[in-house]
Amino acid sequence: MSAQISNRARIMTLIGTILAQFALGSVYTWSLFNAPLAEKLSLPVSNVAFTFGILSLSLAVASSVSGKLQERFGVRNVTIGAGLLIGASLFLTAHADSLLMLYVCGGLLVGFADGTGYLMSLSNCVKLFPERKGLVSACAIGAYGLGSLGFKYINMYMLTHSGLAMTFDTWAVIAMVLVIAGGLMMKDAPLQEVSTAENSVANRDFTLAQAMKSSQFWVLALIFLTICMSGLYVIGVAKDIGEGYVHLSMATAASAVAVIAVANLSGRLVLGVLSDKMDRMKVISIALIVCLAGVGSLLLVHLNAWSFYLAVACIAFSFGGTITVFPSLVSDFFGLNNLTKIYGFIYLGFGIGSIIGSIVASLFGGFVPTFYLMLGLIVLSTVISFMVKLPENKPSLAMAS
Question: Tens of pLDDT along 312-362?
């Protein structure tokens, strides 16, 4: 158990994880750079904005392989490597002179660096606090969310006063220093002892291959994909929904960004803490019901500014809470020892979900088809969430439900 590592080392790892997560969350300020980059490269904003889609997909793929990197090099070395890579890739992005270079440096490399450090350091920290998994997830992922807010002001100030290249360079240095400093404070979590008690949750010690043979793995993957698709789509185009769908003024629609930021962080904190006090699958069911209310309102309610704010707040609250609770939920189902690998594979749903909504909107014309897809998936996921049960304790029986 975590008793094999001192309390001081656990606390230092938690602090280091929070520092690294704060810096890694800065990638969610990317929308600030779309217009300046489009102007620099003389390209449509839509072409430049696709960089963030590449970043999100690369982030998810990197998350799925970060467990293997940790096994080979250790959490400290991989986190330091992620810090060096995010610094270098942001610096290269500052001097990108073509769309291809932007996609490679700002999309693939920044996303890979971010995903490598994000999921691995989070999972490692959760393993160190098995008695407070929800609270630790809330602290770490809350820091990731706060990073997007903090760097928003840093990057906006720099863009206004120092120009595009200097802003990227400054962002690169700050993020790199914070991630490396956090990595230096981290210790690898020891392997968890597996209880021999027949009905003990601690008896779960699934490998990735064993987990993937269970129906529960794919149920959790579907639920995660559903929430991520809904949250990421609405967060990414909230201002456009407000203007083009609800017919609000530009300033009123833009205020939805602040509403989403507050709701997102609230979901991380509220549902994260709640998940230590009640069954985590029930917490996810609550998140799905809240998301269902938000998406249903977008489709079925006559919207004004306040009802629009409430609808997007519900979706953002659900999204923030779900990505906070899910690492602990996956460990409840399949054990802590292979959490980074198992959750890393499920986390691919984040990258896939980040592009599905935009693809559906492009193919079928506008917001409404995407809203209906979201609604259908949320209803299905909500029903399943009430039915899913923990797999049998022994991995050899993982197919049972």
Answer: 999 999 998 998 899 889 988 998 888 888 988 898 888 788 778 778 877
Q: What is the pLDDT of residues 43-92, one digit of tens each?
A: 887 788 778 878 888 888 898 888 888 888 999 999 999 999 999 999 99
Distances (CA, A) of 241 to 14, 44, 233: 38, 20, 10
For every residue of 54-107, DSSP letters joined together read HHHHHHHHHHHHHHHHHHHH-HHHHHHHHHHHHHHHHHHHHT--SHHHHIIIII
Report whether 120 contacts 75 (CB < 8 A). Answer: yes
**CA 188 from centre of chain:** 22
The model carries a pTM of 0.78
Question: What secondary structure does DSSP assign to 154-212, as a single string?
Answer: HHHHHHHHH-HHHHHHHHHHHHHHHHHHHHHT--PPPPPPPP--TT-GGG----HHHHH
* Helix, strand, coil % in the chain, rounded to nearest 5: 85, 0, 15
Tell the residue number behind the tokens 């979590």, with chain if given: 189
d(CA 136, CA 115): 19
Residue among 178, 177, 156 nearest 167 (CA):
156
The architecture of the domain spanning 2-184 is: Up-down Bundle (1.20)
| Alpha-carbon torsion, ordered 304, 310, 315, 320, to 10 deg | 140
Q: How many CA atoms lie within 13 A of 139 on its CB side?
A: 19
Give 201-396's CATH code, choosing from 1.20.1250.20, 3.40.50.150, 2.30.40.10, 1.20.1270.220: 1.20.1250.20
